[in-house]
Specification:
The chain is an alpha+beta fold. It has three helices and 19 strands. The strands form five sheets. A six-stranded antiparallel barrel has the order 5-6-9-8-7-10. A six-stranded antiparallel β-barrel has the order 12-13-18-17-14-19. A two-stranded antiparallel sheet has the order 1-2. Helix 2 packs across helix 3.
């Protein structure tokens, strides 16, 4: 009888322990789910219930501002400045548009030495700071200590108004490595201003690091350290409408650096860079570094023109290609002018008209380009946008 009683007591104790363990696990699970829900809620945008994308980028919607985005996702509207600084493509924080991608940055993780510390509450300037005690804490025994001055955190200023921030002009970055190799030169510059007349070593084909001797046209100022482009012409360019000659396409062979000018007039130069083999008799022109970026600006007047050729002789051009125009400085064209590319209108018969009327169709918009270099009668341009394939003979007009 006593043995049965002992077994019954042990069974009750075992059941009680199992129940307590199950109850504790259930509480821990609920606490974990609550903590996860709390963390997810911090990334939940109130109102339209938008969650932070997996890639950490938020697509701007109509009516959004950096202030609102920072308040919704980072839970602090004053962190709009962090978003502005870390999304460097945004020039003006007041000018963000639907579809822009804003990279979001969560709160920085707490350092190991900072764990357990509570963040100091933010209070308005001028109000007294009083440390509140948690209910479970017992009040400390009063001791005679000098009162410590509590630091009051000042809120960052609100975002500046649109009038206070100057709107910077857009900048186009030219990304064509072919600009160092090809170009367009006018007929009067075809012969260049100098020529390679010999080399230090008797070689038929010259290349990088070879020392050569050059001669320049009378009246050309030259000094040690000057650079010249070694080139040859590859073909004549004619106007696609008038068939008049405009210039010649250039193939760059290399770059020279003047190293020494003797008293007797002998000019020595080193081939700094060679793209192809260079022969004696190769022509020289002043070196101009390739354009890397251009600040866009509005033209002072309306200027029309034609695309007369493309860099590398491409037949069909598109975005990021280099093209040449039949207008330049003499027409008022300047570096940075944006121009629309279009195909002229055509006229078709109206099949529904008994009077045989015609209908003029609108221009076919093809894209946009930016002028990156100008000569007297020609210009070089970089296509920044294309909707369709662009061909030689398509028209251009300065953008309004």
């Amino acid at each position: 009888m006593r043995a049965k009683l002992i077994l019954a007591v042990l069974a009750c104790l075992s059941f009680s322990l199992i129940y307590d363990n199950a109850l504790a696990e259930k509480r821990e699970k609920k606490a974990g789910e609550k903590e996860n829900a709390s963390q997810q809620e911090s990334w939940l945008r109130r109102g339209d219930v938008i969650r932070l994308p997996e890639d950490g980028e938020y697509a701007v919607k109509e009516g959004d501002t950096l202030w609102d985005i920072s308040n919704s996702f980072l839970k602090d509207p004053f962190r709009w400045q962090n978003l502005w600084e870390k999304n460097q493509y945004i020039i003006n924080p007041h000018l963000i548009y639907p579809g822009n991608k804003i990279r979001l940055f969560p709160h920085e993780p707490v350092e190991a030495g900072e764990k357990g510390k509570e963040a100091a509450p933010t209070v308005p300037e001028g109000l007294p700071v009083e440390k509140l005690q948690k209910p479970e804490e017992t009040a400390p025994v009063a001791t005679e200590q000098k009162p410590k001055e509590e630091a009051v955190e000042t809120l960052p200023p609100p975002p500046p108004s649109a009038e206070e921030i100057p709107v910077l002009p857009p900048v186009v970055k030219v990304v064509s490595s072919m600009m160092e190799r090809h170009g367009l030169i006018s007929a009067k510059e075809k012969e260049g201003i100098g020529v390679i007349i010999g080399a230090k070593e008797e070689k038929l084909l010259l290349s990088e690091n070879d020392i050569v001797f050059i001669a320049v046209a009378k009246g050309t100022e030259i000094k040690q350290g000057d650079r010249f482009t070694v080139f040859t012409t590859t073909g004549e360019i004619k106007h696609p409408v008038t068939e008049n000659p405009i210039g010649f396409m250039v193939d760059t062979l290399g770059i020279l650096l003047v190293t020494q000018i003797d008293k007797d007039g002998v000019i020595s130069a080193k081939i700094e860079k060679s793209y192809k083999e260079i022969l004696k008799g190769a022509k020289l022109k002043p070196y101009e570094p390739p354009v890397k970026e251009v600040i866009v600006k509005k033209a002072e007047k309306a200027i029309d023109g034609l695309i007369i050729a493309s860099l590398g002789g491409k037949v069909g051009m598109a975005e990021r290609d280099i093209v040449y125009l039949d207008n330049g400085k003499s027409s008022g064209l300047e570096v940075g002018n944006a121009m629309d590319i279009f195909r002229p209108t055509i006229t078709v018969d109206d099949p529904m008209s008994k009077e045989k009327k015609t209908i003029t169709l609108p221009n076919k918009e093809l894209g946009r380009l930016v002028v990156i270099a100008v000569e007297d009668d020609t210009a070089t341009a970089f296509i920044t946008n294309s909707r369709q394939v662009i061909y030689k003979g398509d028209r251009v007009r300065t953008a309004e």
